[in-house]
User: Fold LRR receptor-like serine/threonine-protein kinase GSO1 from Populus euphratica.
Amino acid sequence: MAGTHLTFLVFLSWLTVCIMTTNAYKTNSNVVDVKVMCMEREKQALLKLKDDLVDKNDQLSSWGTSDDCCNWTGVRCNNRTGHVYALQLNQQKLQLNDSTLEKNYSMQFKWDISSPLLELKHLAYLTMSMVRATSIPQFIGSLKHLMHLEMSDCDLSGTIPHQLGNLTRLVFLDLSNNNFHKVESLSWLSRLPALKHLDLSSTDLSGTTDWFQAINSLPYLHNLYLSDCGLSLVISPPLFHSNYSPASLADIDLSQNSLTSSILPWLFDFNNSLVHLKLCYNEFLRKNPKSFGAMINLESLDLSENHFEGEIPRALGNLGRLESLDLSWNSLVGEVPDMKNLSFISTLDLSENKLNGSWIENIQLLSHLEYLDISSNFMNGTISEISLLNLTKLTYLDISSNAFVFNLSLNWTPPFQLETLIMRSCKLGPSFPQWLRTQRRISHLDISSNFMNGTISEINLLNLIKLRYLDISSNILQVGA
Ligand SMILES: *[C@@H]1O[C@H](CO)[C@@H](O)[C@H](O)[C@H]1NC(C)=O
Ligand SMILES: *[C@@H]1O[C@H](CO)[C@@H](O)[C@H](O)[C@H]1NC(C)=O
Ligand SMILES: *[C@@H]1O[C@H](CO)[C@@H](O)[C@H](O)[C@H]1NC(C)=O
Ligand SMILES: *[C@@H]1O[C@H](CO)[C@@H](O)[C@H](O)[C@H]1NC(C)=O
Ligand SMILES: *[C@@H]1O[C@H](CO)[C@@H](O)[C@H](O)[C@H]1NC(C)=O
Ligand SMILES: *[C@@H]1O[C@H](CO)[C@@H](O)[C@H](O)[C@H]1NC(C)=O
Ligand SMILES: *[C@@H]1O[C@H](CO)[C@@H](O)[C@H](O)[C@H]1NC(C)=O
Ligand SMILES: *[C@@H]1O[C@H](CO)[C@@H](O)[C@H](O)[C@H]1NC(C)=O
Ligand SMILES: *[C@@H]1O[C@H](CO)[C@@H](O)[C@H](O)[C@H]1NC(C)=O
Ligand SMILES: *[C@@H]1O[C@H](CO)[C@@H](O)[C@H](O)[C@H]1NC(C)=O
Ligand SMILES: *[C@@H]1O[C@H](CO)[C@@H](O)[C@H](O)[C@H]1NC(C)=O
Ligand SMILES: *[C@@H]1O[C@H](CO)[C@@H](O)[C@H](O)[C@H]1NC(C)=O
Assistant:
């Protein structure tokens, strides 16, 4: 999800710059057809920059081949002034070595991020994500025109220079997934009033006392990603008036921190603007998540891996735009509320709670479901052909460890083609479920512990072409013809 957003924002930023240049162009309509070449100084700077890079896959092979650096890969110039305004160093994704999880950088700086960059004085857009480097140079603060700075997954260490606070036009800042030293202060953030997108995920902010204040000084902040930052808030923050806090935060990821319910009043300030909210792996306690029901524009909500107790609030059933809801690994009890208004929901994970009731019998109303995990609860009720009739899009189903009863005829043909089916401990037996043979795309199948009494030859009749994982343990299967 964050990925799609990122791409969209990148696109937006290009667009913004394009629109700016077009306007500038129109006001100078006398000089229209003059083809503007790139600046010699900037060209030389780019060539020096290339010299400072190890470029394993020759991504910069076009650099130096033609005189006009404006059409080199990853370089964009303002077509009126000829100045380089956008630079994207790497177009390739990181590859991970499967066995060591080591990152394989296709591009890296030989030493530090080099000063030729400074020659590109009109740079507005700089993305060097997944280019390996050592640290962020302090001189970055001199690139005064920067609106977009993306340095995620660069293996950067050292400190985050407070000179970033000099980039007062920044709209987009992504420094996520690096190895910076423990950050002491984020006060420089408050000098970036135009910031809309901030991603510092996987940066150790546990030593900062001002992160919350810094964020609340950014009036236009729209996307905030501080996942895995060691964040905690000891006391309930004072409520901020909209003059001092972001007016319309839409996308928040504060997952994998040590946050408690003391931050909730602040979050509920954004009940009208929030579209995506991710709070998984924190320390939210006791209070049931009632007020989330007031966040009427939510499309995704992830509260998994916390300690929420009590019932799932009925109000969540009103979030008509919700596409993804994850409440797994909490201590929620009682019946699942009526969800028939959640007609767009495609991902629903309620697993590992203490939920009961026969809600499953009404699941046919959720016709957009693609991913359903309700495993390890105390649910009962009958799973019938009628209840599954509408679930044509389902590809992931885990109903393990509940107390469902099945009423599926021998020749039933499901409306879906599953890729993952997990039905551990579901009392499926004694006979082998024939309908499994219709599932041609299945790659992960777990039907262990089901009191099944059949022959291995029946397994052979399954569509095994895509199968990568099979668990049929704890059944009574005989080797037979
Ligand atoms: C200059 O750039 C603008 C916006 O990208 C574009 O619409 C226009 O056609 C360009 N002009 C020339 C002469 O390339
Ligand atoms: C850049 O422009 C030159 C001259 O217009 C052209 O020969 C060359 O193919 C272009 N290179 C790229 C990568 O577009
Ligand atoms: C991954 O790392 C291991 C251990 O360093 C190495 O033996 C292996 O060749 C690497 N895999 C690939 C695909 O290069
Ligand atoms: C690293 O990536 C390059 C090209 O992308 C590839 O040729 C090489 O095998 C990769 N090495 C490892 C260790 O994955
Ligand atoms: C950049 O910011 C630092 C403080 O973070 C300040 O001391 C310095 O004067 C600024 N430089 C410029 C060129 O504005
Ligand atoms: C949303 O928040 C505002 C301000 O905090 C509050 O006045 C309003 O009642 C809330 N809306 C809902 C539906 O709870
Ligand atoms: C569903 O939506 C309708 C109309 O918006 C509303 O009247 C009803 O109370 C909602 N039902 C539930 C269970 O939330
Ligand atoms: C469901 O759980 C709630 C809360 O634990 C309990 O009060 C209720 O009796 C249970 N309902 C059924 C049908 O077991
Ligand atoms: C299937 O879903 C549609 C709306 O999505 C609903 O109107 C219809 O009643 C459902 N069918 C069954 C058998 O429940
Ligand atoms: C579900 O379990 C509860 C409590 O054991 C029981 O009262 C109820 O009749 C069961 N419902 C179904 C549909 O089996
Ligand atoms: C099982 O489902 C069929 C329709 O598919 C229905 O006629 C029958 O009554 C159901 N049996 C039970 C025990 O619910
Ligand atoms: C398994 O099935 C066979 C033949 O259908 C039957 O003779 C046997 O008693 C069954 N075993 C169990 C444990 O149900």
Q: What stands out?
A: The first strand starts at residue 53 and ends at 55. The chain has a mean pLDDT of 87.
